[in-house]
Design a protein that fits this description.
This protein has helices at 2-23, 38-59, 66-82, 84-87, 91-123, 142-151; strands spanning 161-170, 180-189, 194-204, 207-216, 219-226, 230-236. It has 243 residues and is α+β, with helices and mostly antiparallel strands.
Length: 243
C-alpha cells in the first residue's frame, strides 16, 4: 500500500509537468487541447514538484510529507478547474492524496499533542543533588537491595526521569488471535509518580492505530484513535485509571 501511494504521488506529479512542457513548447502534447500560457505552465510545474517532494518525504517517513501534498492539491485543483476539459480526471488522484494527507496530518497532530504533554511532564521535574546511600534502601526486601546494589545506583544521584523505547505486540480484543506489531515510548516523572505512554500500531500500511495513556497527579487518561482521526477510546476521570 505504501508503494502504491508513492506511485500515485509520483505519476500524478509527473503528469503535471506535461502542462509545463506544452506551455513552453518543449513537447507536442495532443491530449492537452486548450492553450496554456507560460505563467500557467510554471504553475503546473510547481504543482508537480510539490507532489514529487511529498512522495519523497512520505517514502522517508518524514512527519511533514502531508504539507506539500495539500498545497499541491490546492494548486492542482485550481488548474483542473481552469482546464477542466483536458484535466478533469486529475481530480480523482487529488481526492485520493487528500484523504491520505488528512490521515497524515491527524497522526502528526496527535504526536505533536503527545510531545507537548511530555515536555510539560519533564518540565515539572525538580532536580537536586541528593545521593542514594545504603541506609535509604536498608528497609527494602533483601532481593531488592541486592538488585539495587548490583545496578550501581548506591552512591549516585537520585533518578528523576526515565524514558523507554519499546517494541511490543498488541491486539484490539482479548479474543483476537492475530497480534499486531507496535512501537511505544514512555516517559516517567519519578518525583510525582507520573508517566506518559504513547504507541503506534500498524494494522496494515496506511492503516494505523495511535494511542496515549497518561497518569498525572494521580489522574489517568486513555486515548486511542484509528488513523489518528476516529476515537476508539477516550476515557478520563475514571476510577479504574486513577491512582
Amino acid at each position: 500500500m505504501k508503494i502504491l501511494f508513492f506511485v500515485i504521488l509520483f505519476f500524478h506529479g509527473v503528469i503535471h509537468f506535461l502542462g509545463f512542457a506544452k506551455a513552453f513548447n518543449l513537447k507536442e502534447i495532443k491530449e492537452l487541447t486548450l492553450p496554456i500560457s507560460q505563467f500557467n505552465g510554471v504553475i503546473w510545474l510547481i504543482a508537480g514538484i510539490l507532489f514529487l517532494t511529498s512522495g519523497l518525504l512520505f517514502t522517508f517517513n518524514n512527519n511533514y510529507w502531508w504539507l506539500p501534498a495539500v498545497i499541491g492539491i490546492i494548486i492542482s485543483q485550481f488548474l483542473i478547474f481552469t482546464f477542466w476539459k483536458d484535466a478533469k480526471f486529475g481530480s480523482i488522484p487529488n481526492i485520493i492524496v487528500l484523504l491520505v494527507a488528512m490521515v497524515g496530518y491527524a497522526n502528526f497532530s496527535f504526536q505533536n499533542m503527545v510531545g507537548l504533554e511530555v515536555k510539560k511532564l519533564l518540565s515539572d521535574i525538580k532536580l537536586d543533588n541528593q545521593i542514594v546511600d545504603p541506609n535509604m534502601i536498608s528497609n527494602l526486601p533483601v532481593a531488592v537491595q541486592s538488585w539495587l546494589n548490583y545496578s550501581g545506583i548506591v552512591g549516585k544521584p537520585f533518578i528523576h526521569s526515565v524514558s523507554l523505547n519499546q517494541k511490543v505486540q498488541m491486539k484490539m480484543k482479548s479474543d483476537q488471535t492475530e497480534w499486531y506489531d507496535a512501537e511505544a515510548t514512555q516517559y516517567f516523572n519519578v518525583n510525582s509518580s507520573s508517566f506518559i505512554w504513547s504507541v503506534k500500531m500498524e494494522m496494515m500500511t496506511l492503516f494505523q492505530v495511535v494511542g496515549r495513556d497518561k497518569l498525572i497527579n494521580g489522574k489517568g487518561e486513555m486515548l486511542i484513535k484509528l488513523l489518528g482521526l476516529l476515537s476508539l477510546v477516550d476515557t478520563k476521570d475514571n476510577s479504574k485509571l486513577n491512582m
